[in-house]
């Protein structure tokens, strides 16, 4: 089997030595070529061309941003070619998609799980989410957010460019700061789901393809705990932004069972094939922890059995 190993050199949880160990282990089982990303969307380009270059498997080492690029590249495989299978190894600060798949958070242990899957022929197909708008036509693996969390992602990316290291503590501190400053207090979002009445005057809206939404360190944060790769899309939205109520909701999201489907201060939707979120004025928007910019209207669609995963 020919495999392309896409490595993000900025991966925060690996060292050159550990990457060499991982490459050596994989190369014993497959005909491996290593490609190191050099710029944003480079992983997407490499994955898009993998089938034409004769690869049957694409492996990546990086965070959720790298995973998103690879997935979008693989989903761009020309229809006349066989799309390669995919195996993702954790290299970022959160690795939400990889952890949701049940893989170990240690990249060396995850490599072992992927190799076991290759040897036994164990694989699974997962559904993805797709967004379309005037500016976008992209896939996401675990979440897309309008408002508060996208504002947080935007600020984290700004601080990373200035030299800060992304960490759960950085995300939490920025989220708290934005909340206390009141810059996110705009109830201008509307969620439209076919077959349901539109819900307006929302402060923050999140669409998920699995659970959790994110992690606070090792603790999963679950606003939509019923969300699964095998189902349609789920969504969560805040109808109130009182400090005490939001604190209670966050505490419930971090409990073992996650947030209940119904409650005060929020609304949820479960297992939906499609939905649309619109804003009265442009709001910050993100997918898989990557800030895309300001958006006024985004369409969401569930894409079942979109990708074959190894491990």
What does this entry look like structurally?
- Keywords: Kinase, Transferase.
- This is Diacylglycerol kinase.
- With 311 residues, this protein is α+β, with helices and mostly antiparallel strands.
- It folds into two domains: 2-121, Probable inorganic polyphosphate/atp-NAD kinase, domain 1 (Rossmann fold); 131-304, Tumour Suppressor Smad4 (Sandwich), CATH 2.60.200.
- The protein has helices at 16-27, 42-48, 64-74, 96-100, 107-120, 148-161, 168-181, 243-253; strands spanning 2-7, 31-36, 57-62, 85-90, 123-132, 137-140, 143-146, 189-192, 199-202, 204-208, 214-216, 219-221, 233-238, 266-272, 274-287, 290-310.
- Strands 5, 6, 7, 8, 9, 10, 13, 14, 15 and 16 form a ten-stranded antiparallel sheet that branches. The protein has a four-stranded parallel sheet with strand order 2-1-3-4, with helices on both faces. A two-stranded antiparallel sheet has the order 11-12.
- Strand 1 (2-7), helix 1 and strand 2 (31-36) form a beta-alpha-beta unit.
- It starts with a strand and ends with a strand.
């Amino acid at each position: 089997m020919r495999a392309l190993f896409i490595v993000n050199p900025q991966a925060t949880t690996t060292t050159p030595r550990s990457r060499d160990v991982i490459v050596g282990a994989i190369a014993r089982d497959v005909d491996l070529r290593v490609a190191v990303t050099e710029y944003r969307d480079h992983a997407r380009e490499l994955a898009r061309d993998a089938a034409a270059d004769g690869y049957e498997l694409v492996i990546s080492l990086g965070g959720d941003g790298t995973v998103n690029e690879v997935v979008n590249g693989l989903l761009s495989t020309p229809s006349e070619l066989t799309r390669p299978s995919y195996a993702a190894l954790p290299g970022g600060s959160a690795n939400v998609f990889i952890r949701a798949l049940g893989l170990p958070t240690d990249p060396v242990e995850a490599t072992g799980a992927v190799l076991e899957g290759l040897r036994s022929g164990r694989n699974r197909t997962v559904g993805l989410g797709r967004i379309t708008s005037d500016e976008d036509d992209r896939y996401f693996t675990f979440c897309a957010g309008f408002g508060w969390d996208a504002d947080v992602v935007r600020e984290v990316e700004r601080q990373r460019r200035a030299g800060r290291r992304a960490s759960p503590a950085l995300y939490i501190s920025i989220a708290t700061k934005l909340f206390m400053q009141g810059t996110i207090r705009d109830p201008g979002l509307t969620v439209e789901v076919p077959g349901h009445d539109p819900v307006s005057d929302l402060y923050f809206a999140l669409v998920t393809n699995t659970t959790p939404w994110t992690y606070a360190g090792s603790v999963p944060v679950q606003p939509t705990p019923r969300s699964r790769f095998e189902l349609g899309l789920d969504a969560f939205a805040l109808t109130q932004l009182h400090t005490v109520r939001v604190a209670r909701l966050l505490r419930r999201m971090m409990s073992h069972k996650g947030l209940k489907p119904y409650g005060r201060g929020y609304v949820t939707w479960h297992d939906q094939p499609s939905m649309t979120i619109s804003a009265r004025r442009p709001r910050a928007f993100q997918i898989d922890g990557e800030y895309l910019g300001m958006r006024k209207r985004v369409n969401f669609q569930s894409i079942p059995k979109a990708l074959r995963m190894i491990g």
